[in-house]
Amino acid sequence: MAHGKEPNEIRIAILTVSDTRTEDNDTAGALIEHFAELAGLAVAGRGWVADDTGKIRNVVTALLADPEIDAVITTGGTGIAARDVTIEAIRPLLSKELDGFGELFRYLSFAEDVGTKAMLSRAAAGTAQGKVVFILPGSRGAVRLAMESLIIPEIRHIVAELRK
User: Fold this and answer.
1) Residue 1 domain flag
2) Is 163 among the domain residues?
3) pTM higher than 0.90
4) Band (2; pLDDT cuts 50, 70, 90)
5) Has residue 117 been placed in a domain?
6) Residue 128: exposure state from Cβ atoms within 10 A (0-12, 13-18, ≥19)
7) Which residues form a coiled coil (predicted)?
């Protein structure tokens, strides 16, 4: 299958969702930034927001409106605890969900070392306003798995498709 020309530069925004993480102790967000830079992606910005549906939605809406950003990667708030509301905040903003992302993430998590606890992850991805949004758990292991195995190998193709 022929694909369009892959973009030279992809600019991502990283958003950590947490009531406790800050720039000083956000190891998951730092790991996303590390992998992005290794892959030659430009980090357009990195931010933090509390586990609050309205606040998360407002920040993501602003990021999606930024013409300089091609992708938004969030970390945190994807579990089943009452405070885990990242999915609920972002899902209404998505025009298309990439169901395969969450399915593959849980499959790889199960196979690697998480076992049946992988079913508790609500990691997801989708598109909105011509951009891709990845919603990752807050653990370093989950971020590493998602970035190495799923996001980095496909982000250029996804963005190229969205730019058509």
Assistant:
1) no
2) no
3) yes
4) very low
5) yes
6) buried
7) none
Number of domains in the chain: 1
Structural domain boundaries enclosing 44: 11-152
Q: Kindly tell me if the per-residue pLDDT of 6 is higher than 80.
A: no
Task: With respect to residue 4, please indicate whether it lies within any of the assigned structural domains.
Answer: no
* Mean pLDDT score across all residues of the chain: 94
pLDDT per position as a tens digit, 101-122: 999 999 999 998 889 999 999 9
- In order, the DSSP letters of 4-18 are PPPPS--EEEEEEE-
Share of the chain above pLDDT 70, in %: 96
CATH number of the domain that residue 83 is part of: 3.40.980.10
Beta strand 124-128 with 131-136 is: antiparallel
